[in-house]
């Protein structure tokens, strides 16, 4: 099967390279200030529960100068298009560009997921954020309706590299491409019910994108805690990797730990398969339960290995 392709598009200085660096290379947000503008398409590859290739297309590449055949070729094997809009800048040009891309890509491949990032929202106050979101959605939907495009799959996300919203958005985007996601969600529901766990995530250890979770809702604060917890645990594991007790390129493999947070929540973290970490949260603790959870984690790991490797 071909590797699903995701295109990262948008006007120059919208934030594409920064997003790629922060999500896939753990770059600190402030360091992106010094990023050089990308002039050639750049790729990231992920091979976990889902395999995909993310291609950043530089803003100065004018895809509309390409002929019809080239455009068809560009979009024919694309699963998702992520379009980045700088919400702190005048965005009408970007919206026009986005609508043109949707129009062309939808004709070539109506199954494409269009993921619109209303980006850099850290610079907007709460009221202005909501207004901007409403305005952008309204304008794009009106334009597309005028073109008779009413069934395109468009999702809007408010993002910033200065908080967890960008990785949270990527999680939602990538999850749409995970094969057998609904069965996996059911499996995680059963895992929670049988283990007395309230919330469980499967994270990609490198990017902190979560590729699956149980069916209960996710709130940003919980995600934030989990993401920070993984960072700290991997750093600690790396500290000990030199004397041989933990060993892997990222310190995440063979990682298995249990911690109690200040708010009384117990967090279970365990390496699964293919760069995936399971993170479970529960309010109650007992020795008996710990044994049960550990046993169920092993069963789940075997199941994932059978399905995804
Ligand atoms: P590209 O040309 O689309 O690849 O844009 P860059 O990634 O080079 O980003 C352009 C500028 O936007 C850089 O100075 C980044 O630091 C800044 N930037 C990127 N993301 C954000 C964000 O979420 N918030 C803010 N305030 N600035 C951002």
Automatic annotation (TrEMBL):
Signal peptide: none
Listed InterPro entries: Gtr1_RagA, P-loop_NTPase, RagC/D
GO molecular function per UniProt: GTP binding; GTPase activity
GO annotation, cellular component aspect: endomembrane system; fungal-type vacuole membrane; Gtr1-Gtr2 GTPase complex; nucleus
Pfam family, one: Gtr1_RagA
One BP annotation, GO: positive regulation of TORC1 signaling
Top-rank taxon: Eukaryota
Family: Belongs to the GTR/RAG GTP-binding protein family.
This protein's name: GTP-binding protein
């Amino acid at each position: 099967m071909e590797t699903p392709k995701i295109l990262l598009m948008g006007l120059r200085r919208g934030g594409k390279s920064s997003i790629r660096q922060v999500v896939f290379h753990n770059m600190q947000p402030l360091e992106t200030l010094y990023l050089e503008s990308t002039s050639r398409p750049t790729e990231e590859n992920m091979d976990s529960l889902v395999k995909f290739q993310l291609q950043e297309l530089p803003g100065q590449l004018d895809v509309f100068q390409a002929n019809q055949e080239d455009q068809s070729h560009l979009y024919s094997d694309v699963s998702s298009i992520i379009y980045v809009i700088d919400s702190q800048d005048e965005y009408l040009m970007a919206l026009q560009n986005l609508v043109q891309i949707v129009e062309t890509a939808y004709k070539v491949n109506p199954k494409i997921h269009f993921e619109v990032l209303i980006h850099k929202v850290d610079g907007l106050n709460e009221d202005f954020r909501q207004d901007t979101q409403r305005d952008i959605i309204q304008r794009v939907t009106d334009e597309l309706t005028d073109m008779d495009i009413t069934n395109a799959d468009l999702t809007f996300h408010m993002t910033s590299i200065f908080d967890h919203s960008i990785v949270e958005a990527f999680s939602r985007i990538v999850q749409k491409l995970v094969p057998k996601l609904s069965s996996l969600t059911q499996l995680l529901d059963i895992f929670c019910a049988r283990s007395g766990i309230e919330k469980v995530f499967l994270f990609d250890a490198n990017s902190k994108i979560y590729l699956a979770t149980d069916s209960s809702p996710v709130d940003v604060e919980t995600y934030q805690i989990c993401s920070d917890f993984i960072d700290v645990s991997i750093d600690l594991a790396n500290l000990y990797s030199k004397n041989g007790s933990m060993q892997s390129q990222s310190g995440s493999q063979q990682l298995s730990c249990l911690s109690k947070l200040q708010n009384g929540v117990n967090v279970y973290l365990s390496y699964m398969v293919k760069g995936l970490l399971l993170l479970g949260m529960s309010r109650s603790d007992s020795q008996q339960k710990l044994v049960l959870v550990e046993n169920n984690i092993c069963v789940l790991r075997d199941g994932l290995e059978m399905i995804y490797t």
